[in-house]
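Query structure, 69 tokens:
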């Protein structure tokens, strides 16, 4: 095998390895994006719930001393 053939073979192996790595990273990125979207949705729901509870607490009657004091 000539030096050029060996270099081409090494380059082909490198490209194949890099293509596999890129595919794996792309898959991981897609999974992480799902987690980010789920977390964002949970945060949105919690924010809505918090704001609703805060609004309810503002509408609640003031705490007063019981009549027997």
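Result returned for the query:
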């Amino acid at each position: 095998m000539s030096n050029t053939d060996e270099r081409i073979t090494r380059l082909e192996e490198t490209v194949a390895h890099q293509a596999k790595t890129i595919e794996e990273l792309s898959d991981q990125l897609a999974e992480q994006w799902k987690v980010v979207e789920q977390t964002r949705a949970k945060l949105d729901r919690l924010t809505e719930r918090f704001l609703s509870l805060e609004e309810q607490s503002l509408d609640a009657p003031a705490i007063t001393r019981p009549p027997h004091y």
